Automatic annotation (TrEMBL):
This is Serine hydrolase domain-containing protein. Gene3D superfamilies: alpha/beta hydrolase. Residues 217-229 have a biased composition (Polar residues). Transmembrane segments: none annotated. Residues 207-229 are annotated as: Disordered. It comes from Phaseolus angularis (Azuki bean). It comes from the Eukaryota. Residues 7-184 form the Serine hydrolase domain. Pfam families: FSH1 (PF03959).
Length: 229
């Protein structure tokens, strides 16, 4: 399906913890290229250099980045507000963007930004960022990939529940950007055609983890994306 004005939708892509925009680009290269023909994908590196060992060392070359830091139980976060500010400033300077694609830590940020926008750009300081962002169901169209063997499967389910009428695509793998079989590829293609490309003013976003990381695709109004999400 071709867009009437021939213009591609601009998608901001946010990578996982201690990886990079280049690595996320490689991760989604396993998907059918025809899924991306109507999108301009922009891959951003995290705000901070990786503060420790990366899981992709020896698999993909450095440098590696992280968006923010956290305690092992995901109850305490560091530099999250600074990261949100960084992304909002980037979007304002380089947008408008029509939506997001994010994996793991990047997916968490996609959901926070969409929720942040829905709450009229509320300030995150007290109550917590999550309390603000997930106060009401997020109305943006979204697709969530959830792995049966993902150690963050339950948080991923939790994140999907924060959205209004999400499309959930399940796969038998773990915490990874999955390879898509023919059935899942067609489901995603139909969602793109029916929910995104046929709409006059919508965008798209993808993510994988939970409220602390996930894999989701969501869409939002590009006029609003320009100034905050």
């Amino acid at each position: 399906m071709e867009r009437e004005n021939g213009k591609k939708l601009k998608i901001l892509c946010l990578h996982g913890f201690r990886t990079s925009g280049s690595f996320l680009k490689k991760q989604i290269s396993k998907w059918d290229p025809s899924l991306f023909t109507q999108f301009h994908m922009e891959f951003l590196d995290g705000k901070y250099p990786a503060g420790g060992k990366s899981d992709i060392e020896g698999i993909f070359p450095p440098p590696y980045y992280e968006w923010f830091q956290f305690e092992k139980d995901f109850t305490v976060y560091f530099n999250l507000e600074e990261c949100i500010t960084y992304l909002c400033e980037y979007i304002t300077a380089n947008g408008p963007f029509d939506g997001f694609l994010g994996f793991s830590q990047g997916a968490t940020l996609c959901a926070l930004l969409l929720g942040y926008q829905a709450q009229a750009r509320s300030k995150f300081r007290d109550p917590s960022i999550c309390d603000v962002a997930y106060k009401d169901p997020i109305k943006a169209k979204s697709v969530h990939f959830i792995g049966d063997k993902d150690w963050l499967k339950l948080p991923s389910e939790d994140l999907a529940s924060a959205f209004d009428k999400p499309l959930i695509l399940r796969h038998p793998q773990g915490h990874t950007v999955p390879r898509l079989d023919e059935v899942t590829t067609n489901q995603l293609r139909n969602w793109i055609n029916d929910e995104v490309l046929c709409q006059p003013k919508v965008g798209v976003s993808v993510t994988e983890h939970g409220k602390d990381h996930e894999n989701e695709v969501g869409s939002t109004n590009p006029n609003k994306v320009e100034n905050g999400v």
